[in-house]
């Protein structure tokens, strides 16, 4: 296993996991100390967290998850999007690409994009930023060319103040399983549109569960030139590429 993941063998409380790692080394202690010194968001104190293991970009990735919040669970669309990024890294030209993930949740997609060389900004609601940043640092600190950034993003709110177009440009907007039964779909679409500039590509993977998911897709197609890039019938996940239509 790569050295940069040795610190990920422990939960946030510092309890060793039973995966063959005997205990913290001097090096992992040093990295752990660095992690705490730069982490500005604190994970919510849920009753239980689990450590889930994933394998992407030739790395073992360990994600701290909790079923107590939708935003602290890896959903099916995330793994599909991760696999697509890994399989098409050169085609997508991810090295040094500027990427923003909408609704990053526990951070798996942002971690994979970072490991593949991208400059990543992971965004979500305030209550999940602590766990998101924890997972990002645990899996990317001293492993990536660009340490991913974590920012609060409430869909449709204060976009021009927090992400002014003159200062922020993204090659890719990533989103996975952000469309489900909630009341903020119009704000989500408005956020995707706002963050898209000439040359920006939206990659959106979603498990299609409800009729409202297809309603959102119809609205997405009205404002984005849309291509179906992958479809997984066993999980009902579809992956779309969208490029904003400019008048």
TrEMBL record:
CDD domains referenced in this protein's UniProt entry, alphabetically: AdoMet_MTases (cd02440)
Entry-linked InterPro entries: Methyltransf_16, SAM-dependent_MTases_sf
Major subcellular site: cytoplasm
Top-level taxon of the source organism: Eukaryota
Region named Disordered: 1-27
Pfam families: Methyltransf_16 (PF10294)
Cellular component, GO, one term: nucleus
Localization terms from the record: Cytoplasm; Nucleus
SUPFAM superfamilies: S-adenosyl-L-methionine-dependent methyltransferases
Protein name: Protein-lysine methyltransferase METTL21C
Source organism of the structure: Mesocricetus auratus
